[in-house]
Amino acid sequence: MRQKVVFFDLLRCIAAIAVVVIHVLGPYRDQLGVISDSAWITATSFNSFSRWAVPVFIMITGALMLSDTREFDAKYYVKRRLGKVLLPFLIWSVFYAFLSGLTAAGYDGATALETLKALPEHETYYHLGFFYYFIPLYFVVPFLQYYVRQTDRTGTIALTLVWLVLTSLFLFKIDGFWSHQLILYSGYLLLGYCLFQLQWPALKWLVVLGGAGLLLTDYMVVSNSFSAGEYTVGRWMSYKTLNTACIAAMIFALCRHYCDRLSQAWLTRIAFMSRYSLGIYLLHPIFLWPVREYDLYFAHPLIMIPFWTLICTGLALTASWMLAKSTKTAWLVP
Residues with Cβ < 8 Å from 258, sequence gap 6 or more? Predict the structure, then answer.
């Protein structure tokens, strides 16, 4: 059991850091031709190599929840599972709606109000979009739990393979009912379960497929953008495509394989950070706001992206820890 805890703790930590990386580099994406080509390619490569982060969070959820053999209790599930995420999401959405009106030039209350009104249909801040496709997955989990209990290894893998085919269709813009985000994100629940319980696919294949996915994603985005004369990604940066699924599966499997090689000191640090990984996700834009608003990117992206990632992650971790110390605010960073 200890191995499983370390394994998921490590995944949560690196996924949280990768999310911060994606948001730190955001302003660079549309600066092709504005900054040097080397600077733009560096920032874009950071982006290409970090897209697995969001899928990994979903895969962890799938690995844990689909492995739960307890009888399904709807009341417990809604209160302890769904409610634990839903309520903090709503509170932080309101907070960020008001933050959206703040700029270096002053405060625009009208913008904040319009952002708040759009909450039922659209995220109030860029990082909260995750919850609009993550929360509906809680309604899919019971059905997938039932499926994996009723079928065997072959049946579970077969359904996962069908989903992987759908992600490849979506990547190449062959659209249909399968393009709905609920279908494409739900597959990550199954993929996480397969990697965790069935240890499928094998690590050696995932290293090949995931490594190829990383390089191909970066190449396609960089080459297509230079050809178009502007930042363009097609669907290569999507969370719902085969390349991203292969990369995420590789990261998942590598963490499982190497987690036991970490020292006890590192395991302790990782466990602490993992406890507040969702808090880091929720809070880091507060500390990133002045960086983006005042354009505090004063050196090459190779320096700035790790630098601000470290600062914003550290501050968000500290803030999450402080909120969690009080029973009155701990629920805000579950």
Answer: none
Which residues, including other chains, have CB under 8 Å from residue 191's CB and lie 6 or more apart?
A: 59, 62, 160, 163, 245, 248, 249
Helix axis angle, 181-193 relative to 242-258, nearest 10°? 20
Contact 323, 330 (CB under 8 A): yes
Long-range contacts of 228-232 (CB under 8 A, 24+ apart): 229/32, 229/33, 230/30, 230/32, 230/33, 231/29, 231/30, 231/32, 231/44
**Number of helices (H), then strands (E), in the chain:** 15, 2
117-156 pLDDT tens trace: 999 999 999 999 999 999 999 999 999 999 999 999 999 9
Among candidate residues 211, 312, 262, 315, the one with its CA nearest the CA of residue 10:
262
Q: Which two tokens stand for residue 48?
A: 């290409």
- pTM of this prediction? 0.96
Q: How does pLDDT run across 44-72, given as a tens digit for each residue?
A: 999 999 999 999 999 999 999 999 988 88
Residues 226/48/185/19 CA torsion (nearest 10 deg): -130
Question: Tokens in use for 118?
Answer: 């759009």
- Report the percentage of the chain scoring pLDDT > 90: 93
Write the pLDDT tens digit of every residue in 150-196: 999 999 999 999 999 999 999 999 999 999 999 999 999 999 999 99
User: How many other C-beta atoms can be found within 10 angstroms of the C-beta atom of residue 47?
Assistant: 22
Residue 125 makes CB contacts below 8 A (sequence gap 6+) with 93, 96, 97, 99, 100, 285
Looking up tokens 């290409």, which residue turns up? Answer: 48
Q: If you search the block for the tokens 């844990």, which residue do you land on?
A: 64
